[in-house]
Amino acid sequence: MDALVIGGGPAGVSAAITLRQAGREVLLLERSRFPRYHIGESLIPGAVQLLGELGLDAAVAAAGFVEKPGARFYDAADGMDVALTFRDAPSGTSFPMAWQVERDRFDALLLEGAAAQGVEVLCPAQVTAVRPGPDHVEVEAEVDGAPRTWRVPAVVDASGHKSLVARTFGLRTHIPKLKTHAFFGYAKGLSRAPGVDGGNVVIGFAPGGWLWGIPLNDDVTSVGVVLTEEAKAQEDLRDPRALLVKFAQAYLPYPEDIDAQLFGEVRAYGAINYCATRYALDRVVLAGDAAAFLDPVFSTGVYLSLQGGRDAGRAVAEGLARGDLSQAAFLGYERQLRLLHHVSLELIQMFYQGRFGNLLRAMDGRPHLIQEVVGLLAGDLLSERGMVSRALMKRANPDVPLTQA
Ligand SMILES: Cc1cc2nc3c(=O)[nH]c(=O)nc-3n(C[C@H](O)[C@H](O)[C@H](O)COP(=O)(O)OP(=O)(O)OC[C@H]3O[C@@H](n4cnc5c(N)ncnc54)[C@H](O)[C@@H]3O)c2cc1C
Question: Are residues 132 and 148 in the same domain?
Answer without folding.
Answer: yes
